[in-house]
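Hey L., structure's done. Input below.
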Amino acid sequence: MLLERIYNHVVREKQWNIGFPDKSLEELVHGASFSVRMLRHSYTDRWFADPFVLEVTDEEILLLAEDYDIHLRRGRISLLTVERNTLELKKLTPVLDVARHLSFPCIVRRNDKVYIMPENLFGEGLTLYEFDQKTYSCRKEKVVSTQPLADAVLTDVLGEEMLLGTYLPYDNPVLHTFVYNAQGEEVRHESYVFADKTARNAGAFFECDGKLYRPAQDGKLYYGQGIVIQQVTKDETGRLAFHEVCRLSSPTTGQPSRIHTLNSYKGVTVVDMATCQHPHIARMAVQLKKHFCVIKR
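Output:
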């Protein structure tokens, strides 16, 4: 346990920020190498992570993201208005702040309305909020689940209302799915075990070339090790199958860097990235952990 705490300290992230890959979503799915342009901002008391694209215009990119206050050690959900050409943060607007930490504001679009469902592990569970794009305010719609699910996604792209999420710790290898009927009642619960610890969601489902994909987190060695793109299919019984098509690692070289979330909307793809507090020591720690993992096998 002591060694694990030391490992977590030296390998953990220093500060997260939002980035924009220079390749299209289609190119990323096909394994293209890429670089990232980072969001430009002057804040030193907070960092930004878990970005979801709310809207895109010729001039601006609107993001909903975790806005983490370093001093309070707590996140809220904020709207980030980004200048599209320069990627400079023009305006930061808090939209949802509660007593407990909020992150991963999953966007759900239904009947011309926008809803968000942020992670709230130590609060009341998963709550769906209707988001007013004129006033930038949230109205509580319903509690989707009282389960303490991390980085959960609510979607109907598979033909039925489905909630997907994992329990702590971050590298939990089991993905849980909950299917609901029109009355919001749970009608089916299934679990899927990922031997390589890629169960946790890294963003919302997306379609590309007529196929459905799920971004998942690679958490085998450390939190934010990379993103795994999995094609998702469903058999006649309703059970899902996940087929890995590629892995995305941070394009930063020379030190263990994090890449944790990937989302895309209207041609704009966003990720979040971070570097370690002690990069040189972290690099050695990761290599040692890899060595011990090989020995265990």
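The mean pLDDT is 90. The longest strand covers residues 46-56.

-- N.
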